[in-house]
Prior knowledge:
Layout: H1 8-18, H2 35-42, H3 46-62, H4 76-96, H5 100-113, H6 123-140, H7 146-165, H8 178-193, H9 199-217, H10 229-251, H11 266-272, H12 297-304, H13 310-319, H14 328-341, E1 360-363, E2 369-373, E3 383-387, E4 403-407, E5 410-413, H15 421-425, E6 454-456, E7 469-473, E8 480-484, E9 495-503, E10 507-515, E11 522-529, E12 532-536, E13 539-544, E14 547-554, E15 561-564, E16 580-587, E17 594-602
Antiparallel strand pairs: 1-2, 2-3, 3-4, 4-5, 6-11, 7-8, 8-9, 9-10, 10-17, 11-16, 12-13, 13-14, 14-17, 15-16
Helix pairs in contact: 1-9, 3-4, 4-5, 4-6, 4-14, 5-6, 6-7, 6-8, 8-9, 8-10, 11-12
Amino acid sequence: MKPSLISFEYVEEAIRLAAGRRGPRLWRRTSASDPWKERVEADPDSLFLRACIREETEAICAAPLLERIVEGRRLLAVSRQCLSRIALLDFGWRLLGDPRFPHRAAEEVLAVCRFSDWNPSHFLDTAEMSLAVAWALDAFGELWDPAFRRRIENSLIRLGLDAGDVNPEAWWIRSNNNWGQVCHAGMTAAALVLLERDPARAARVVHRAVTNVPASMAVYAPDGGYPEGPSYWSYGTTFNVLLIQMLENVLGTDFGLSEQEGFSNTGLYIQAMRGPTGLFFNYADGSEENGYCPSVVYWFAERFGTPVVSSWVEMTRRQWRSGSDQATGTRKKRRDRFGLELLWLPPLRGATAGVDLPLDWQDRGIVPVAVFRSGWDDPDAWFAGLKAGSPGQNHGHMDVGAFVLDAMGVRWAVDLGADCYHRIESRGLLLWDRAQNSDRWRVYRLNNYSHNTLTIGGALQRVEGYAPITGFSSDRESPWAEADLTSVYASLATRVIRRLSLRERCSAVITDRVEGVRPGTQVEWGMMTRADVEISGSVAFLRQSGRVMRVEAMGEGMRWEVQEADPPPAEHDSPNPGVRRLRFFVHAPPSGELALEVRFQAG
């Protein structure tokens, strides 16, 4: 049966059968055995992992308790800190048995339960905080004084579940993006941990989740891609998996959620989006750096037999190194998710499935993308990705036709990623309005002036436009993808076709065919890079990390120029240190037709 058709009575019966089971349930374990602890102890790195957990939990015990600090619209940073602290204290208690940890967890939840609210106007904040408090009750509640536990339960009801019930038509309930995944996971955790107190409410909350989350999961169809990009994949998918695990652990079923189209393949998508440099193809509001919780890939590996390349295992294990080889800023940022990373440990060393992933991958979903590479687990491999779709998608940018390029251990063509939400919002700009004339498109990192694509007549891409990938070839020697960008340049051209090729898997070529442009109109071809640039007419030599990339604009009279991306155009824009735009301009001839070609090869 489809989850959206699950009856309330069916959920109610599952709740009834689960009531009365003692002990922690959200992340199932018994007093006799703890599979997670057994796996840690069997790992060759168990001593190092213990040391990492010890370091993190000691830092928590020494840190001030959390305060209700709202940044702009959001309490989210505090909610995430609370969630990570509780998760780490739980894993530390299970592995190390330190009696301070249940006491510290009690102090942590009491502090946040004294808040006036968990900022329900930005409901992600409430959902993540609810999950944190529910996790604490599940892990430590039986060790706490009954009166104290009751006090925390009452706060979870008042600040979490009641807030989620205020508006039965709240937009996040039927959301088709990451909000649905995160918010339903948080509310379900709260309901399940309190199911004996209020089984009727638990049934309502679970039924609401399993019948509405499929709207968020529909984006995985048909190939497992995620329209909001790899960063939001990590966020939304992590909470989607948490929801599935909680339902299965407590109720014995996920009501068919894991069977949604494309979901079993999405563990491949996120690996395909990571280049050999370790950086992601960060289209939309994304970051090049590691995803929110990369270890969730191992849940897909165990559940669906998804192969995991060894470089992903190495990356995840590096996350453990909280203090030994990372700067303080990175370590602090990582603490906000390290607890969740521990929930899905990577395989034992030498136990990976090996490289059994395709070199070329295409997502035919809402936001089509195509990626090609010359090899897996080779840091010097060539990797290129092409993004189509629409700027109007949630968290979308005017990056239609954009590409990234890795080779020789360097990312040559970069995407600047998201700007700071609070920075933009605090200056009074309407960041989340995606209309054509919205403030959103005044942000440099979000419009096409900073993306690796075309700009025609100095105009913005059209928000209502949509570019499909119309051709894809996984040719063994020279794979390619082609996208029809015409509708995002509506009124500027009658046809715009971009093709990306990985020729002989050791060079890349971008070709553009533009028709129906008004004669004399200026067309810009541009890409962002961190490399130092030396120009010789139609050839640009990019130098970075001791490597050289030769970039040639084919055609008579072509000439490159460089535009520094820092300082950015406006005060509201974030700085882009070390980034510059390599570009050339051409003017449409009387025929209105242009054929552009740019070749990349090792210099």
